[in-house]
Amino acid sequence: MEFSRKLLSTLTAGQSTDPGRTAADATAFSDESLETLRLNISNPGLSTASMKDNMLRLIYGEMMGQDVQFGAIYALKLAQSGQTVGEKRAGYLACYLLLQEGNELNIMLINTLQKDLTSSNYHHVVVALVTLCNMTLPDVIPSMVSHVLTALTHTHESVRKRALIALKSFYTLDPDLILPYLDQIKDSLYDPEPSVMSAALGFFAIAVKDHAGVMKELVPALIKILQQVVDGKLPKGYLYHGMAAPWIQIRCLMIMAQLGHDDLSASTAMTPVVLRAFYKASQGVDAAFGVLFEVLRTLNSFHPAIILELCQSKDSTRNPLLAIPRFATSTNPNLKYLGISMLCQVNPDAWSDAWWTEDLLGAVVQALESRDAAIQRRALDLLYRMLTLENAQNIIDRLVYAFFQEQDGGLQGASSQQGSASSSRMSEKRHQPQHSQVSLPFPSRKEKILGQILDAAERFGPSEEWYLNLMFDLLARGGTAITLQTAEKVMSVLERGKFTHSCICVDFFFSTSSLCSLWYPLT
Amino acid sequence: MIKSVLIFNNHGNPRLTKFYQPIDIATQQALIKEIFQLISKRPDTVCNFLEGSQMLGGQDTRVIYRHYATLYFVFVVDESESELGILDLIQVFVESLDRCFENVCELDLIFHFKEVHDILAEVITGGMVLETDIGDIVAAVQEAGKLAKKPTGLLAQKSPF
Lengths: 523, 161
Prior knowledge:
The structure holds 2 protein chains of 2 kinds.
Chain A: H1 2-17, H2 19-28, H3 31-41, H4 48-63, H5 72-81, H6 85-98, H7 106-117, H8 122-133, H9 145-151, H10 157-173, H11 175-178, H12 182-186, H13 194-211, H14 219-230, E1 239-240, E2 243-244, H15 246-259, H16 264-283, H17 288-301, H18 304-310, H19 324-328, H20 333-345, H21 358-368, H22 373-385, H23 392-405, H24 420-431, H25 445-460, H26 464-477, H27 484-496, H28 502-511, H29 513-519
Antiparallel strand pairs in A: 1-2
Helix pairs in contact in A: 3-4, 4-5, 4-6, 5-6, 6-8, 7-8, 8-10, 9-10, 10-13, 13-15, 14-15, 14-16, 15-16, 15-17, 16-17, 17-20, 20-22, 21-22, 23-25
Chain B: E1 2-9, E2 14-19, H1 25-40, E3 49-53, E4 58-68, E5 71-77, H2 83-101, H3 106-111, H4 113-123, E6 124-125, E7 128-129, H5 134-149, H6 154-157
């Protein structure tokens, strides 16, 4: 807190003493200077030091959205012939930004990387590995794997930890490339350097997602690591606000969550150490909350028997569920958000009346009315999970209300203030010529709520007439969130229910203007 | 996994952008605008988490940010990351910047552009947390800074005589 205030004062001070400079700098990178830059870097007599400066301007230009493709060859040259590590770094950084798959320069990049990876100067190895960590070029990576595996046993820890992250990046790109070497990578979990061990955990946190089955033998190692961290065996530098290495704990817990999923014996073996982490964290402040949250997530991912047993306990040191109300009822918006998120994580079978106190229910109701759109959305997701036959109608009504409140497309989480829709549309239009090829590849919030409503209505709808009325309303006023898929889904529900008034149904579909426009292209 | 780290000022001008997955430049700029529009509307009294960027991963992504005076520090992460862990990580990153620049301000980010990239690379690499020990981060950056001034190529090995 004290730190933030200090930073706050310096940041504002920095601006007030030199008000024009920031604004000037932002506009400094015009097309004109881009032209100068192009001339500068193509000068063959340029020293590598001034090439580095030009390269940094190039990277800056890229950040500002300029097209600086012309710099690729010079970036590669700088990476190759840089006299200092800093020059090499700048060259590689630009290479990473400018080289795409299939570029004919990639073969040169491979050569440069190989040379640096086998260099006796460990700084060069580090620079090459950092480049590989961010690398996504499928025509470069396969030839690098053996070099990176060799780097796993390098004498310097900063090489080892980066090698592990490079392997993680390779794994995300093509798991089959790395899977044969799992045993070799596993050894890094026992590395004496905590930062290398942490990087190895990072690798397994990714790899375990699809291959939990073949990684069960990690369980004892993870238990040991978490035990050591919780007991404060790591160096002092890893303490964060009094909490022992929260990031390493969180990573361990994430892997455990995957390993214990639907596996009773693994879950049972890991539960004691997870509870130990819970116990330690529940005594801490601030930084400990992240670990607490992860403990809850992990226990809920374990075999259901674990959480069902723990939730019986009235002892707050044994029953992690009892920690949640403290978050959900908090006045701190971050903790409140996490509290509601935690409630979403808990298996509904573990809910009990003793736990759902008035306070907790009040907190959820309050969150539903919250002016913070992020918290409100979390509460809606929770509501969806609370669906039962008795409360279905109320909850569906609330979801429908939220559905119509939500604006079409774009702008997630913007507080639903008046006028924001029109202003955003205007700004979109303004930028359209520039970014016309940019599409929105992911479903919007509105479509997600729609999915929840359709599902809830299908499972809990009291009558066909009610269902029909609801669908009519949604289809008529749903705007762009309604697609042909939505209509098809509704139709299939109606068909399965052997709908008695099918003529009305067809009638009503075609009378809906939004649907007519949907079907138009088909005819 | 961390998908992207963005720093921009109160006017939405980018000061540092880092993407840990390949994204073409037009989408990058649109994404920065999208996220700035989302965040700049939020008062400081609401939570620091947002759901879903439609440009980068949809509903499963989380946007986690901190606002320091004139700058927004924004991390876009997938659903497997811990929200509070990332929030603390932003603090570690900013504290590291502050130690390296001694009272960091927005101008430092512009005029020491490369150092900021180097510091970020010590904290996060390839979308993964690499180091959280602030002492180690600062030491590594300072060591790299010293090396930057000293040639390590052929010239350095040449005998002065």
